[in-house]
Design goal:
The chain is built from seven helices and nine strands; from the N terminus they run βαββββαβαβααβαβα. Helices cover 33% and strands 18% of the residues. Strands 1, 2, 3, 4, 5, 6, 7, 8 and 9 form a nine-stranded mixed sheet that branches. The protein has a single domain, classed as Metal-dependent hydrolases (TIM Barrel). By secondary structure, the protein is an alpha/beta fold. Bound molecules: zinc ion (2 copies).
Length: 239
């Protein structure tokens, strides 16, 4: 079970099953130190509520659980356009970019260009969601060094492993290249239901089966270091 889960969804994502308060209560009940709520961006049907990002109204702590206010934004095309609401950009604690059905590109080259463009000129994204998903294959030889260079985290997504959405050969390659280039990784639940929040057992088992590659996993850092990391990234977005 994760103490720090950096990718979860509420009812503000069409596919999420629980309210914000339900997710926070589950996180507290499981003894989690930090949970990031990262609902989908508008292009994927996500409802982005301005209130959530108002620090005076929604504090960053709930009964001892730290809260990061995030967004899983959509990469819209190979040029790297995204659906992050610019009015909220400076208030977002953790910003993920992912390829989803709202992506207009087709195939390996478009997918790869999209992510490289996001890394190069996007609004300081913190993490690439599920870079080893079968639906949107990437040229990892190009993506991993670029992400490492920018300090952008590459995700290992537990729900996708459970659901069979992960390309295991791509995951193996991702881990090997990440270790070689010193990339940052995160192990996340991508939880949409109570059964999923904080789960990492499938990922940890897969990592053991892949020979426990020497990768730097952000979730395994102490809480203070994780908070400092995302605060520093957020200050880049604020310019
Ligand atoms: Zn996603
Ligand atoms: Zn997600």
């Amino acid at each position: 079970m994760l103490k720090i889960d950096l990718h979860t969804h509420t009812l503000n994502s069409k596919c999420g099953q629980h309210t914000l308060l339900e997710v926070l209560n589950i996180a507290r009940g499981r003894g989690m130190e930090l949970i990031a709520i990262t609902d989908h961006g508008p292009a994927q049907g996500g409802t982005v509520r301005g209130t959530f990002f108002q620090d005076a109204r929604v504090p960053h702590e709930f009964d001892g659980v730290r809260l990061l206010k995030g967004l899983e934004a959509n990469v819209l095309d190979a040029d790297g356009h995204d659906d992050v609401p610019r009015s909220l950009l400076e208030r977002i604690d953790i910003l993920l970019a992912g390829l989803h059905p709202s992506f207009g590109g087709k195939g390996l080259e478009d997918n790869t260009r999209a992510v490289l463009n996001i890394l190069e000129s996007g609004p300081a994204f913190d993490m690439i969601s599920h870079p080893d998903i079968r639906a949107y294959p990437l040229n990892l030889e190009r993506v991993v060094p670029a992400a490492a260079d920018k300090g952008v985290i590459l995700e290992i997504n537990d729900a996708n492993l459970v659901l069979g959405k992960t390309d295991l050969e791509k995951m193996r390659e991702l881990l090997a290249l990440g270790a070689k280039h010193g990339a940052l990784f995160a192990v996340n639940s991508d939880g949409h239901t109570w059964a999923e929040f904080g789960r990492d057992d499938s990922t940890r088992r897969a990592l053991r089966e892949f020979g426990s590659p020497a990768i730097d996993i952000v979730n395994d850092w102490p809480l203070d270091k994780v908070l400092a990391h995302f605060a520093a990234r957020r200050s880049i977005r604020r310019g």
